[in-house]
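explain this chain.
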Amino acid sequence: MSINPLSFSKALLISGMIVFISFGCSKTDETEMLVLGGTILTLDPSQPEVEAMVVRDGKVEAVGIKAELETRFPKAQRHDLEGRTVLPGFIDSHTHVYALAHDMKKVDLAGTLTIKEMTEKLRAHHPDPPEGQWLIGANWDEGEWGSRGYPDRAELDEAFPNNPVYLESLHGFAGFYNGRALEIAGIGPETPDPEVGEILRRPNGEPTGTLLTRAQDLVNKHIPPESLEETKETLLLGMNLMAKEGVTSIHEAGMGKEMVQAFSELREEGRLPIRVYGMLSRRNKDLMEEWFKRGPWIDPEAFFTVRSIKVFYDGSLGSRTAILKEPYSDEPEGANMTEYISSQELTSLSSQALEKGFQMVIHAIGDGANDRVLSIFEKVLKSDPSVDHRWRIEHAQVVLPDFYMRCAAQHIISSMQSSHAVEDRYWAEDRVGPERIRHAYAWRRMLDAGVFLLMNSDLPAVPWKPLYTLYFAVTRKDLNGNPPEGWYPDQILTVEETLYAMTLAGAYAAFQEDQLGSLSPGKFADFVELDKDPRHAKPEELKNIKVLRTWVAGKVVSEIN
């Protein structure tokens, strides 16, 4: 199925066009539900808005004119929307749902600008921790700290001499540890930097406590893991949080063996509240060997599918570990451009994935990284240009001017996050300068060039609710309305384009467009009820729209009483 986002958004703008379409034979089963009494946006380009919808056995049975459906399905239970608006359920096509829930157990360090503030938050959360207990925090902004100078552990050591401390950064590309944690990991002045990563040091060679990229693994492997049952409960907590905000399907970006097992068991137990499209973490070589032998797992009910591989190519712009074609504009000598996987290894992995039927999903932030990844994709896909690969570049944050044309020509999907632009705007231009910033966070340029665009959250390190994602894309402003005119407003998307990028585009990117993404007859009845129609809300009001009810396969999974 070929989907054109521009023609779709035009179709969705058509006012008052209601087309009657049915699926299969007329039924009069009491399990049928007739949804009516509000605005129903199908996001199906052939009939973008209808008066009523019939749901049967977890799927959309028919959509069309209210009077005709009432006649065809006289025994159907009526669900009156009372003026509410229905949309297909949001597909968040880049998530870390385990981290979302697990972070709730951590001390939230968002907005902290001094070590004293960090310490005070830790003490408030752990006033009298047992000796030896790990104290874990998250969400200090490595971009902000990287601009001012990364933290030193001296105050942490004084405050918590008997407890190891791990403070994860906002985007996960830096970790801040106290002396006890470093001691447990055996990290000292003589410890060499890992092949990928850096141990920041004091003038005398002692580690400051800040570890960049993979250097964090030296310590993190010593943190006691959760049990399988605890992992399952954490995943359920995260998925239920997302369902509450209208998410009916996620693309989980990087699963290790334990997470695959947890999702699989939850699926077998019938406990998954929303759908999961899983990406295998390339970091686990044993896991990759196992799945290359067995091949993709495609769930016919679309609740847990595994057919893609998540790879980190470079780091982040904030920590200056993203790979740029030219040096960083600010502090080029302080940058540590990080290549997580060599071009040769990525080429080999991509070739194996193509042969075995797996989708490649590559994290690439800097223009140098995006250029290299695109070149590898072009080279590998030449061997079988007819394959329906739907390979993806996650973030595509800073790109070269020729990226758009090359990406569109190879049918590479750009998976981007509207929150990143507004979150990073304080320092992003400092990193790349006034020229390169024109090709950063460039959603409009992507779309206008014919690039297939996804819009998602990359939670948990951002304001992740789907209505926030929509608001950021349409305004390029933060939740406080800044900057007033929007940050580089020429890259703004329309409501219709963004809704498409958050629903049907996400289904397509997971090879599930025949099952999910629109309220079309024959597809699963995954939908949300909103208190307002986002097409008619002022841009500033989009973030305040409320999700009142979320349905998956025709059943309510979340409801505001």
User: Anything to note?
Assistant: Residues 99-220 form a domain with the Diaminopimelate Epimerase; Chain A, domain 1 fold (CATH 3.10.310.70). The radius of gyration is 24 Å. The longest helix spans residues 228-244.
